[in-house]
Automatic annotation (TrEMBL):
Pfam families: Amidohydro_1 (PF01979). Its EC number is 3.5.4.28, 3.5.4.31. Binds 1 zinc ion per subunit. The keyword Zinc applies. It comes from the Bacteria. The gene is mtaD. Belongs to the metallo-dependent hydrolases superfamily. ATZ/TRZ family. Keywords: Hydrolase, Metal-binding, Zinc. It catalyses: S-methyl-5'-thioadenosine + H2O + H(+) = S-methyl-5'-thioinosine + NH4(+); S-adenosyl-L-homocysteine + H2O + H(+) = S-inosyl-L-homocysteine + NH4(+). This is 5-methylthioadenosine/S-adenosylhomocysteine deaminase.
Length: 439
Protein backbone atom coordinates (compact mmCIF):
# COMPACT_ATOMS: atom_id res chain seq x y z
CA UNK A 1 0.00 0.00 0.00
CA UNK A 2 1.40 3.47 -0.88
CA UNK A 3 1.70 5.86 2.01
CA UNK A 4 0.03 9.31 1.75
CA UNK A 5 2.61 11.87 0.60
CA UNK A 6 2.92 15.35 2.12
CA UNK A 7 5.27 18.31 1.65
CA UNK A 8 6.13 18.57 5.33
CA UNK A 9 5.32 16.95 8.65
CA UNK A 10 5.95 18.66 11.99
CA UNK A 11 5.83 16.78 15.27
CA UNK A 12 5.82 18.60 18.58
CA UNK A 13 5.79 17.78 22.29
CA UNK A 14 2.78 20.07 22.72
CA UNK A 15 0.28 21.60 20.29
CA UNK A 16 -1.98 24.49 21.34
CA UNK A 17 -4.73 24.28 18.73
CA UNK A 18 -6.87 27.31 19.77
CA UNK A 19 -9.77 25.34 18.27
CA UNK A 20 -11.11 24.95 21.79
CA UNK A 21 -9.96 27.16 24.70
CA UNK A 22 -7.31 25.30 26.67
CA UNK A 23 -6.87 22.42 24.18
CA UNK A 24 -3.33 21.03 24.20
CA UNK A 25 -2.46 17.92 22.19
CA UNK A 26 0.60 16.05 23.43
CA UNK A 27 3.06 14.28 21.11
CA UNK A 28 1.10 14.98 17.95
CA UNK A 29 2.13 15.80 14.41
CA UNK A 30 0.63 17.73 11.55
CA UNK A 31 0.99 16.99 7.85
CA UNK A 32 1.09 19.87 5.37
CA UNK A 33 0.50 19.86 1.62
CA UNK A 34 0.33 22.91 -0.66
CA UNK A 35 0.50 25.16 2.41
CA UNK A 36 -2.52 23.55 4.08
CA UNK A 37 -2.85 21.36 7.16
CA UNK A 38 -4.14 18.04 5.81
CA UNK A 39 -3.80 15.80 8.85
CA UNK A 40 -3.31 15.97 12.62
CA UNK A 41 -2.20 12.63 14.05
CA UNK A 42 -0.52 11.14 17.13
CA UNK A 43 3.24 11.34 16.50
CA UNK A 44 3.59 7.55 16.81
CA UNK A 45 1.52 7.20 13.61
CA UNK A 46 4.01 9.21 11.52
CA UNK A 47 5.43 5.99 10.10
CA UNK A 48 2.18 5.54 8.20
CA UNK A 49 2.73 8.64 6.06
CA UNK A 50 5.65 10.11 4.14
CA UNK A 51 6.80 13.68 3.62
CA UNK A 52 9.50 15.50 1.69
CA UNK A 53 10.60 17.19 4.91
CA UNK A 54 10.12 16.38 8.58
CA UNK A 55 10.65 18.82 11.45
CA UNK A 56 10.94 17.25 14.89
CA UNK A 57 10.26 19.56 17.82
CA UNK A 58 10.78 17.40 20.92
CA UNK A 59 10.79 20.19 23.52
CA UNK A 60 8.55 22.63 21.73
CA UNK A 61 5.06 23.94 21.65
CA UNK A 62 3.50 24.34 18.20
CA UNK A 63 0.73 26.91 17.91
CA UNK A 64 -0.96 29.21 15.38
CA UNK A 65 1.08 32.21 14.24
CA UNK A 66 0.50 35.47 16.09
CA UNK A 67 -1.61 38.10 14.35
CA UNK A 68 -0.53 41.68 14.96
CA UNK A 69 -3.84 43.49 14.57
CA UNK A 70 -2.49 47.04 14.60
CA UNK A 71 0.90 48.34 13.52
CA UNK A 72 2.86 50.92 11.58
CA UNK A 73 5.77 48.76 10.44
CA UNK A 74 7.99 51.43 8.89
CA UNK A 75 8.10 53.30 12.20
CA UNK A 76 10.96 51.00 13.31
CA UNK A 77 13.16 53.72 11.78
CA UNK A 78 11.76 56.22 14.34
CA UNK A 79 12.09 53.90 17.34
CA UNK A 80 13.39 55.69 20.42
CA UNK A 81 13.26 59.16 18.82
CA UNK A 82 10.57 60.44 21.19
CA UNK A 83 9.71 58.63 24.42
CA UNK A 84 7.77 59.48 27.56
CA UNK A 85 5.23 61.77 25.87
CA UNK A 86 1.45 61.82 25.64
CA UNK A 87 -0.08 61.00 22.25
CA UNK A 88 -0.73 64.49 20.83
CA UNK A 89 2.62 65.92 22.01
CA UNK A 90 4.32 62.81 20.58
CA UNK A 91 2.54 63.15 17.22
CA UNK A 92 2.45 66.95 16.77
CA UNK A 93 5.88 67.86 18.08
CA UNK A 94 8.00 64.81 17.29
CA UNK A 95 6.62 62.09 15.01
CA UNK A 96 4.79 64.10 12.35
CA UNK A 97 7.75 66.51 11.89
CA UNK A 98 10.14 63.53 11.60
CA UNK A 99 7.82 61.77 9.14
CA UNK A 100 7.64 64.99 7.12
CA UNK A 101 11.42 64.97 6.74
CA UNK A 102 11.98 61.30 6.00
CA UNK A 103 8.94 59.27 4.93
CA UNK A 104 9.13 58.20 1.26
CA UNK A 105 9.01 54.79 -0.45
CA UNK A 106 12.55 53.76 0.51
CA UNK A 107 11.93 54.64 4.18
CA UNK A 108 8.75 52.53 4.16
CA UNK A 109 10.35 49.58 2.36
CA UNK A 110 13.45 49.46 4.59
CA UNK A 111 11.58 50.23 7.81
CA UNK A 112 8.93 47.60 7.05
CA UNK A 113 11.54 44.92 6.29
CA UNK A 114 13.27 45.65 9.60
CA UNK A 115 9.89 45.38 11.34
CA UNK A 116 9.10 42.13 9.57
CA UNK A 117 12.46 40.62 10.54
CA UNK A 118 11.66 41.47 14.17
CA UNK A 119 8.08 40.21 13.92
CA UNK A 120 8.98 36.91 12.22
CA UNK A 121 11.67 36.31 14.88
CA UNK A 122 8.97 36.92 17.49
CA UNK A 123 6.40 34.55 15.99
CA UNK A 124 4.15 37.01 14.16
CA UNK A 125 2.80 35.67 10.88
CA UNK A 126 0.25 38.39 9.97
CA UNK A 127 0.55 42.16 10.22
CA UNK A 128 -2.40 44.54 9.92
CA UNK A 129 -0.56 47.74 9.10
CA UNK A 130 -1.45 51.34 8.33
CA UNK A 131 1.02 53.84 6.93
CA UNK A 132 2.03 55.56 3.69
CA UNK A 133 3.57 54.42 0.34
CA UNK A 134 1.58 51.23 0.08
CA UNK A 135 3.35 49.62 -2.86
CA UNK A 136 6.57 49.73 -0.81
CA UNK A 137 4.80 48.13 2.15
CA UNK A 138 3.24 45.45 -0.07
CA UNK A 139 6.64 44.71 -1.66
CA UNK A 140 8.15 44.31 1.81
CA UNK A 141 5.34 41.89 2.71
CA UNK A 142 5.97 39.81 -0.40
CA UNK A 143 9.74 39.80 0.20
CA UNK A 144 9.35 38.67 3.81
CA UNK A 145 6.59 36.14 3.16
CA UNK A 146 4.38 37.54 5.93
CA UNK A 147 0.62 37.79 5.49
CA UNK A 148 0.32 41.55 5.08
CA UNK A 149 -2.68 43.87 5.38
CA UNK A 150 -1.67 47.23 3.92
CA UNK A 151 -3.69 50.06 5.45
CA UNK A 152 -4.08 53.04 3.12
CA UNK A 153 -3.85 56.10 5.36
CA UNK A 154 -6.34 58.88 4.78
CA UNK A 155 -6.01 62.29 6.44
CA UNK A 156 -7.33 65.76 5.64
CA UNK A 157 -3.93 67.45 5.84
CA UNK A 158 -0.98 67.10 3.48
CA UNK A 159 1.95 64.77 4.08
CA UNK A 160 4.71 63.66 1.72
CA UNK A 161 2.32 60.98 0.44
CA UNK A 162 -0.83 62.97 -0.27
CA UNK A 163 -2.25 66.49 -0.56
CA UNK A 164 -5.77 65.92 0.80
CA UNK A 165 -8.18 63.08 1.55
CA UNK A 166 -9.21 62.57 -2.09
CA UNK A 167 -5.59 62.46 -3.15
CA UNK A 168 -4.75 59.82 -0.49
CA UNK A 169 -7.71 57.73 -1.65
CA UNK A 170 -6.96 57.88 -5.38
CA UNK A 171 -3.24 57.19 -4.91
CA UNK A 172 -4.00 54.25 -2.60
CA UNK A 173 -6.47 52.65 -4.97
CA UNK A 174 -3.98 52.97 -7.82
CA UNK A 175 -1.27 51.28 -5.72
CA UNK A 176 -3.72 48.54 -4.70
CA UNK A 177 -4.40 47.53 -8.32
CA UNK A 178 -0.86 46.22 -8.74
CA UNK A 179 -1.33 43.68 -5.91
CA UNK A 180 -4.91 42.50 -6.42
CA UNK A 181 -3.85 38.96 -7.39
CA UNK A 182 -1.51 38.47 -4.42
CA UNK A 183 -2.98 36.03 -1.89
CA UNK A 184 -0.82 37.22 1.03
CA UNK A 185 -1.36 40.96 0.45
CA UNK A 186 -4.66 42.71 1.19
CA UNK A 187 -5.24 46.46 1.05
CA UNK A 188 -7.52 48.14 3.61
CA UNK A 189 -8.83 51.69 3.99
CA UNK A 190 -7.24 53.46 6.96
CA UNK A 191 -8.78 56.80 7.86
CA UNK A 192 -6.31 57.92 10.53
CA UNK A 193 -8.65 58.99 13.37
CA UNK A 194 -11.84 60.95 14.08
CA UNK A 195 -9.77 64.07 14.87
CA UNK A 196 -7.95 64.06 11.50
CA UNK A 197 -10.76 63.00 9.13
CA UNK A 198 -13.86 64.97 8.10
CA UNK A 199 -17.46 63.77 7.96
CA UNK A 200 -17.43 63.82 4.15
CA UNK A 201 -14.33 61.68 3.98
CA UNK A 202 -15.66 59.16 6.50
CA UNK A 203 -18.84 58.84 4.39
CA UNK A 204 -16.72 58.25 1.27
CA UNK A 205 -14.65 55.65 3.08
CA UNK A 206 -17.78 53.76 4.21
CA UNK A 207 -19.14 53.73 0.65
CA UNK A 208 -15.84 52.76 -0.91
CA UNK A 209 -15.38 49.91 1.56
CA UNK A 210 -18.72 48.45 0.44
CA UNK A 211 -18.02 49.00 -3.27
CA UNK A 212 -14.52 47.52 -3.17
CA UNK A 213 -15.17 44.97 -0.40
CA UNK A 214 -12.43 46.38 1.83
CA UNK A 215 -11.85 46.47 5.58
CA UNK A 216 -11.56 49.81 7.41
CA UNK A 217 -8.81 50.32 10.01
CA UNK A 218 -8.92 53.45 12.18
CA UNK A 219 -7.57 54.77 15.52
CA UNK A 220 -10.68 55.37 17.67
CA UNK A 221 -11.21 56.53 21.27
CA UNK A 222 -7.49 56.26 21.99
CA UNK A 223 -7.28 59.04 24.59
CA UNK A 224 -9.58 60.95 26.91
CA UNK A 225 -8.49 64.13 25.07
CA UNK A 226 -9.83 62.73 21.79
CA UNK A 227 -13.27 62.14 23.32
CA UNK A 228 -13.31 65.50 25.12
CA UNK A 229 -12.11 67.35 22.01
CA UNK A 230 -14.95 65.89 19.97
CA UNK A 231 -17.50 66.77 22.66
CA UNK A 232 -16.21 70.35 22.70
CA UNK A 233 -16.06 70.78 18.93
CA UNK A 234 -19.13 68.79 17.88
CA UNK A 235 -21.07 68.08 21.09
CA UNK A 236 -20.75 64.43 20.15
CA UNK A 237 -18.47 61.56 21.15
CA UNK A 238 -16.40 60.16 18.24
CA UNK A 239 -18.18 56.77 18.19
CA UNK A 240 -21.64 58.37 18.01
CA UNK A 241 -20.38 60.45 15.10
CA UNK A 242 -18.94 57.40 13.31
CA UNK A 243 -22.25 55.59 13.80
CA UNK A 244 -24.12 58.46 12.12
CA UNK A 245 -21.62 58.43 9.27
CA UNK A 246 -22.16 54.71 8.62
CA UNK A 247 -18.77 53.46 9.77
CA UNK A 248 -19.84 50.93 12.37
CA UNK A 249 -19.93 47.47 10.78
CA UNK A 250 -17.99 44.18 10.76
CA UNK A 251 -15.67 45.84 8.21
CA UNK A 252 -14.31 48.16 10.90
CA UNK A 253 -11.22 47.33 12.97
CA UNK A 254 -11.07 50.00 15.66
CA UNK A 255 -7.57 50.40 17.09
CA UNK A 256 -7.33 51.25 20.80
CA UNK A 257 -10.90 51.85 22.07
CA UNK A 258 -9.55 52.77 25.48
CA UNK A 259 -12.22 55.24 26.59
CA UNK A 260 -15.63 53.61 26.17
CA UNK A 261 -18.76 53.67 28.30
CA UNK A 262 -21.06 50.68 28.67
CA UNK A 263 -23.48 51.90 25.97
CA UNK A 264 -20.61 52.27 23.53
CA UNK A 265 -19.42 48.73 24.22
CA UNK A 266 -22.95 47.51 23.51
CA UNK A 267 -23.05 49.59 20.30
CA UNK A 268 -19.73 48.18 19.09
CA UNK A 269 -20.88 44.61 19.85
CA UNK A 270 -24.23 45.14 18.09
CA UNK A 271 -22.56 46.41 14.92
CA UNK A 272 -19.94 43.65 14.81
CA UNK A 273 -17.01 46.11 15.02
CA UNK A 274 -13.69 44.43 15.93
CA UNK A 275 -11.15 45.99 18.26
CA UNK A 276 -7.33 45.97 18.13
CA UNK A 277 -6.12 46.28 21.72
CA UNK A 278 -2.61 47.78 22.08
CA UNK A 279 -1.60 47.39 25.72
CA UNK A 280 2.05 48.46 25.46
CA UNK A 281 1.34 51.59 23.42
CA UNK A 282 -1.60 52.51 25.68
CA UNK A 283 0.64 52.18 28.74
CA UNK A 284 3.64 54.00 27.26
CA UNK A 285 1.64 56.97 25.94
CA UNK A 286 -0.36 56.92 29.20
CA UNK A 287 -3.58 56.67 27.17
CA UNK A 288 -5.33 54.43 29.71
CA UNK A 289 -6.57 50.88 30.18
CA UNK A 290 -9.04 49.56 27.60
CA UNK A 291 -12.10 47.72 28.99
CA UNK A 292 -11.07 44.44 27.40
CA UNK A 293 -13.01 42.14 29.73
CA UNK A 294 -16.22 44.11 29.25
CA UNK A 295 -15.76 44.06 25.47
CA UNK A 296 -15.11 40.31 25.42
CA UNK A 297 -18.10 39.69 27.70
CA UNK A 298 -20.28 41.74 25.33
CA UNK A 299 -19.18 39.52 22.43
CA UNK A 300 -16.78 41.95 20.74
CA UNK A 301 -13.92 40.35 18.79
CA UNK A 302 -10.84 41.82 20.46
CA UNK A 303 -7.41 41.07 18.99
CA UNK A 304 -3.98 42.35 20.00
CA UNK A 305 -1.68 44.84 18.27
CA UNK A 306 1.72 46.29 19.01
CA UNK A 307 1.13 49.71 17.40
CA UNK A 308 4.32 51.17 15.91
CA UNK A 309 7.85 50.72 17.21
CA UNK A 310 7.96 54.43 18.06
CA UNK A 311 5.25 54.04 20.71
CA UNK A 312 5.77 50.49 22.02
CA UNK A 313 8.91 50.32 21.46
CA UNK A 314 9.02 46.63 20.52
CA UNK A 315 7.11 44.60 17.95
CA UNK A 316 6.80 41.70 20.35
CA UNK A 317 3.39 40.06 20.20
CA UNK A 318 4.26 37.51 22.89
CA UNK A 319 5.15 40.33 25.29
CA UNK A 320 1.94 42.17 24.44
CA UNK A 321 -0.15 39.02 24.87
CA UNK A 322 1.29 38.83 28.38
CA UNK A 323 0.54 42.51 28.93
CA UNK A 324 -3.03 41.97 27.72
CA UNK A 325 -3.60 39.37 30.43
CA UNK A 326 -1.84 41.38 33.14
CA UNK A 327 -3.35 44.77 32.34
CA UNK A 328 -6.88 43.35 32.28
CA UNK A 329 -6.31 41.95 35.78
CA UNK A 330 -4.98 45.17 37.23
CA UNK A 331 -7.63 47.24 35.45
CA UNK A 332 -10.49 45.22 36.92
CA UNK A 333 -8.83 43.92 40.10
CA UNK A 334 -10.01 40.53 38.87
CA UNK A 335 -7.32 37.85 38.28
CA UNK A 336 -9.70 35.95 35.97
CA UNK A 337 -10.42 38.95 33.73
CA UNK A 338 -8.31 37.65 30.80
CA UNK A 339 -7.08 34.11 31.51
CA UNK A 340 -4.07 32.73 29.62
CA UNK A 341 -6.08 30.72 27.08
CA UNK A 342 -8.19 33.78 26.28
CA UNK A 343 -5.08 35.90 25.75
CA UNK A 344 -3.75 33.32 23.26
CA UNK A 345 -7.09 33.25 21.43
CA UNK A 346 -7.01 37.05 21.23
CA UNK A 347 -3.50 37.01 19.71
CA UNK A 348 -4.43 34.38 17.11
CA UNK A 349 -8.03 33.45 16.22
CA UNK A 350 -9.59 36.78 17.23
CA UNK A 351 -7.12 38.65 15.02
CA UNK A 352 -8.01 36.31 12.17
CA UNK A 353 -11.74 36.89 12.77
CA UNK A 354 -11.28 40.67 12.75
CA UNK A 355 -9.47 40.40 9.41
CA UNK A 356 -12.07 38.01 7.96
CA UNK A 357 -9.52 35.21 7.49
CA UNK A 358 -10.54 32.86 10.32
CA UNK A 359 -11.57 30.28 7.71
CA UNK A 360 -7.89 30.23 6.61
CA UNK A 361 -5.74 30.84 9.72
CA UNK A 362 -5.84 31.54 13.46
CA UNK A 363 -6.02 27.98 14.77
CA UNK A 364 -4.57 24.54 14.04
CA UNK A 365 -7.26 22.64 12.19
CA UNK A 366 -7.50 20.42 9.15
CA UNK A 367 -8.12 22.54 6.06
CA UNK A 368 -6.52 25.70 7.47
CA UNK A 369 -3.35 27.17 6.03
CA UNK A 370 -0.15 26.39 7.91
CA UNK A 371 0.57 29.75 9.56
CA UNK A 372 2.35 28.28 12.57
CA UNK A 373 5.07 28.95 15.10
CA UNK A 374 7.17 26.78 17.41
CA UNK A 375 8.61 27.79 20.78
CA UNK A 376 11.33 25.85 22.55
CA UNK A 377 10.33 25.37 26.19
CA UNK A 378 13.56 23.57 27.17
CA UNK A 379 15.19 26.79 28.43
CA UNK A 380 15.78 27.21 32.15
CA UNK A 381 13.28 30.10 32.07
CA UNK A 382 10.47 27.68 31.23
CA UNK A 383 11.50 24.61 33.21
CA UNK A 384 9.60 22.67 34.35
CA UNK A 385 6.52 22.78 32.12
CA UNK A 386 3.21 21.91 33.74
CA UNK A 387 1.01 23.85 31.33
CA UNK A 388 2.36 25.16 27.99
CA UNK A 389 -0.52 27.67 27.72
CA UNK A 390 0.61 29.25 30.97
CA UNK A 391 4.24 29.41 29.78
CA UNK A 392 3.37 30.93 26.39
CA UNK A 393 1.50 33.79 28.06
CA UNK A 394 3.36 34.34 31.32
CA UNK A 395 6.89 32.94 31.01
CA UNK A 396 8.37 32.67 27.51
CA UNK A 397 10.42 35.30 25.75
CA UNK A 398 10.37 35.84 22.01
CA UNK A 399 13.92 34.45 21.79
CA UNK A 400 12.33 31.04 22.42
CA UNK A 401 10.52 31.18 19.04
CA UNK A 402 12.47 28.73 16.86
CA UNK A 403 10.29 28.40 13.75
CA UNK A 404 7.78 30.56 11.91
CA UNK A 405 5.80 29.31 8.90
CA UNK A 406 3.32 31.16 6.70
CA UNK A 407 1.20 29.03 4.38
CA UNK A 408 3.67 26.21 4.96
CA UNK A 409 6.69 28.31 3.89
CA UNK A 410 9.50 28.50 6.43
CA UNK A 411 10.28 32.13 7.34
CA UNK A 412 12.30 31.31 10.47
CA UNK A 413 14.30 28.08 10.76
CA UNK A 414 15.94 27.40 14.13
CA UNK A 415 16.01 31.19 14.77
CA UNK A 416 17.53 31.97 11.35
CA UNK A 417 15.55 34.17 8.98
CA UNK A 418 15.18 32.46 5.62
CA UNK A 419 13.54 35.17 3.50
CA UNK A 420 15.29 38.25 4.86
CA UNK A 421 18.99 39.09 5.13
CA UNK A 422 19.40 40.16 8.74
CA UNK A 423 22.96 41.50 8.27
CA UNK A 424 21.91 43.62 5.28
CA UNK A 425 19.00 45.01 7.29
CA UNK A 426 21.36 45.94 10.13
CA UNK A 427 23.40 47.94 7.60
CA UNK A 428 20.23 49.63 6.32
CA UNK A 429 19.23 50.56 9.88
CA UNK A 430 22.65 52.11 10.47
CA UNK A 431 22.38 54.08 7.18
CA UNK A 432 18.98 55.42 8.22
CA UNK A 433 20.34 56.43 11.61
CA UNK A 434 22.99 58.53 9.87
CA UNK A 435 20.47 60.08 7.48
CA UNK A 436 18.04 60.95 10.28
CA UNK A 437 20.78 62.39 12.50
CA UNK A 438 22.10 64.47 9.58
CA UNK A 439 18.77 66.36 9.21
C1 LIG B 1 -2.77 56.72 9.38
S1 LIG B 1 -1.53 55.74 10.05
C2 LIG B 1 -0.14 56.66 9.97
C3 LIG B 1 -0.07 57.77 10.94
O1 LIG B 1 -0.48 57.41 12.25
C4 LIG B 1 0.48 57.84 13.17
N1 LIG B 1 0.38 57.07 14.40
C5 LIG B 1 1.18 56.10 14.85
N2 LIG B 1 0.74 55.62 16.03
C6 LIG B 1 -0.38 56.30 16.31
C7 LIG B 1 -1.29 56.27 17.37
O2 LIG B 1 -1.16 55.42 18.39
N3 LIG B 1 -2.34 57.11 17.36
C8 LIG B 1 -2.50 57.97 16.35
N4 LIG B 1 -1.65 58.06 15.31
C9 LIG B 1 -0.61 57.23 15.29
C10 LIG B 1 1.75 57.68 12.42
O3 LIG B 1 2.81 58.41 12.97
C11 LIG B 1 1.39 58.12 11.03
O4 LIG B 1 1.51 59.50 10.85
ZN1 LIG C 1 -1.48 53.25 15.73
Amino acid sequence: MTRPQYDMTVSARWMITVERDGEVLENHAIAIKNGRIEAIIPANQLTAISATQHVDLPHHVLMPGLINLHGHSAMTLLRGLADDKALMDWLNNHIWPAEGKHVHDDFVFDGALIAMAEMIRGGTTTINDMYFYHAAMARAGLASGMRTFVGCSILEFPTNYGANADDYISKSLAERREFLGEELVTFTLAPHAPYTVSDDTFRKVAMLAEQEDMLIHCHIHETADEVEGSLKERQQRPLARLKELGLLSPRLIAAHMVHLNDEEIELVARHGVSVAHNPASNMKLASGIAPVKKMLDAGVTVGIGTDGAASNNKLDMLADTRLTALLAKVGTLDPTAVPAATAIRMATLNGAKALGIDDKVGSIAIGKQADLIALDLSAIETAPTFDPISHVVYAVGREQVTHTWVKGETLLNNRVLTTLDEAALMTKAADWRNRILAR
